[in-house]
Design brief:
It contains 17 helices and 20 strands. It has helices at residues 11-23, 42-46, 70-82, 120-128, 145-156, 171-179, 202-208, 233-243, 260-267, 282-288, 294-299, 319-330, 348-359, 371-381, 438-445, 453-469, 475-492; strands spanning 2-6, 28-32, 53-56, 87-91, 105-112, 134-140, 161-166, 185-188, 219-225, 248-254, 274-277, 291-292, 304-307, 313-316, 340-344, 363-367, 384-385, 398-401, 426-429, 449-452. The strands form three sheets. It has an eight-stranded parallel sheet. Strands 10-9-11-13-14-12 form a six-stranded mixed sheet, with helices on both faces. A six-stranded parallel sheet has the order 17-16-15-18-19-20, sandwiched between helices. The two termini are 31 Å apart.
């Protein structure tokens, strides 16, 4: 079940949002009394409520906004119990001061906004000794492994326990806590209304992650990177899983570069079945796998890790085939052999594409702002090298941009000035947000053929999906989900 937290300054808006949420399928809401700018009128809030509620009133030291006295706050919580609220949230230090009455269930809570403490189990044991129906234990995540500690606690709890981590690093635990036995997960009303660090919007919780449908048998996949908040991979993979009726969820995992191996080792306790891998972990992923295909062996970079039936880790790089398929589609199935290619960039995706086009018989020249990286990749692949300043002098049939120049929101930039473009060349931009970059727009003005990074992104994700679930991917579902997701993000800004 998903509990949606409502924090508004006016009673009227709190009541209206409660009604709206029930109409959208919310089964439980948390009324944050501490957000109201006037003394809370509990009879008004609870009298004709459209659905079950948790009544909560947080002090500033607990992450709340209560401005009244402590006596007034505790009196409100007692009143909510007398009025028959379904749940009341009581911080552990006041639980003994609020007597049990009627059918109201008591959530005894503790929040640590600073860390996930090393004595987690001991602190949890203290909570179990208080008069409770449910326990809520929430901490701040500074390392991805903090998620494992909280989820293990929830899984082994002998009493109903809500436990997850706050912050971007803890985002996955807000979803997975339900899989591991939490009675419900917390969401916020919308993406614009974040009341706690790392909170997820109700619509995303319900529609993208399908938290209300997760159970102990749900398989888990995810994308690892740093940063990761911008990734559209969860959107398109979850759309595909839902379309095919697969009991699985795909999550974003933010993992710092120096914690990759330790995190994946710790995540083995969560039985995660596969990862998409993005910056800065592609080379670390190649080294982590027990088995690497020949593309990974040659490039030293993997964008996919997946388990076989014996739980061994395999790695592959789906950028390779996705890029070639995108190029051939843009050439109407034409031959790549003998084509002169200029590639801008020398990062992880560039390594896979460089190998792909050279194996396809293209004559490749590589350039990059950082000269040494381009020279190293060119030598490794057996390609030519040119300096960034001289890239416009290279005569090519195909131009491939593997840099982030022109990516949203810096959409008025291009890595290749328009006057260097030549009529009828093929211009392929690996950026997928926006789908139509300035580079591609200017290329069309030169009557160039163009290929979008959106097509490549969908195709590499589809190949990952097939590694994960071992069945064909719904390409069009993934393509439409990505376009809708990009449009939604741009509309918000």
């Amino acid at each position: 079940m998903i509990c949606v937290t409502i924090g508004r300054t006016r009673h009227r808006m709190m009541i209206a949002e409660h009604q709206s949420l029930v109409e959208r399928g919310a089964e439980l809401v948390e009324l944050r009394l501490d957000w109201l700018n006037r003394a809370p009128d509990l009879k008004r809030l609870l009298g004709d409520r459209p659905g079950p509620v948790i009544v909560t009133c947080r002090r500033p030291e607990d992450g709340g906004r209560w401005k009244g006295t402590e006596e007034q706050r505790q009196a409100l919580l007692r009143h909510a119990i007398v009025l028959g609220a379904e749940y009341v949230d009581l911080e552990d230090d006041i639980a003994a001061k609020i007597p049990r009455y009627g059918k109201t269930q008591r959530i005894v809570s503790r929040h640590n906004f600073n860390e996930t403490p090393p004595d987690l189990e001991e602190q949890y044991a203290e909570l179990t000794r208080l008069d409770h129906d449910l326990i809520k234990f929430v901490t701040m995540a500074h390392s991805p492994t903090d998620n494992v500690k909280l989820l293990r606690l929830v899984s082994s709890a002998k009493t109903p326990t809500i436990g997850f981590c706050m912050g971007e690093v803890g985002l996955a635990s807000r979803i997975l806590c339900v899989k591991y036995g939490s009675p419900f997960a917390y969401a916020t009303f919308s993406r614009e209304r974040i009341l706690a660090p790392g909170q997820i919007a109700f619509d995303d919780m319900r529609s993208m992650y399908r938290v209300h449908m997760l159970d102990g048998n749900t398989r888990v996949f995810g994308v690892v990177g740093d940063p990761i908040a911008h990734s559209h991979s969860p959107l398109i993979h979850n759309a595909a899983l839902q379309s095919e009726g697969i009991n699985a969820v795909y999550l974003p995992f933010r993992i710092p570069a120096d914690e990759f191996q330790a995190t994946l080792d710790a995540f083995s306790a969560l039985e995660i079945s596969g990862y998409s891998v993005t910056i800065p972990h592609k080379q670390a992923a190649a080294a982590y796998a027990q088995f690497r295909d020949d593309i990974v062996e040659e490039t030293g970079a993997a964008n996919t890790l997946y388990r076989d039936p014996t739980n061994r880790w395999f790695s592959t790089n789906t950028d390779y085939e996705a890029a070639l398929a995108t190029l051939r589609l843009a050439l109407d199935g034409g031959e790549l052999t003998g084509k002169r290619v200029l590639m801008l960039g020398a990062g992880g995706v560039a390594r896979a594409i460089a190998l792909g086009v050279t194996r396809a018989g293209c004559l490749l020249t590589i350039t990059n702002r950082h000269k040494a990286r381009a020279q190293e990749l060119a030598e490794q692949i057996g390609a030519q090298f040119t300096t960034w300043e001289n890239r416009g002098a290279v005569d090519c049939d195909i131009l491939i941009n593997c840099t982030p120049v022109g990516m949203w929101p810096e959409m008025n930039e291009t890595p290749f000035p328009q006057h260097w473009l030549r009529d009828h060349m093929l211009v392929f931009d690996t950026i997928y947000n926006p789908e139509n970059t300035l580079l591609l727009k200017e290329a069309r003005e030169h009557a160039c053929k163009t290929a979008s990074g959106l097509e490549m992104f969908v195709r590499q994700a589809a190949a990952q999906y097939e590694c994960f679930v071992r069945q064909p991917a719904p390409l069009e579902v993934m393509r439409q989900a990505l376009r809708q997701g990009i449009s939604a993000v741009q509309a918000m800004r």
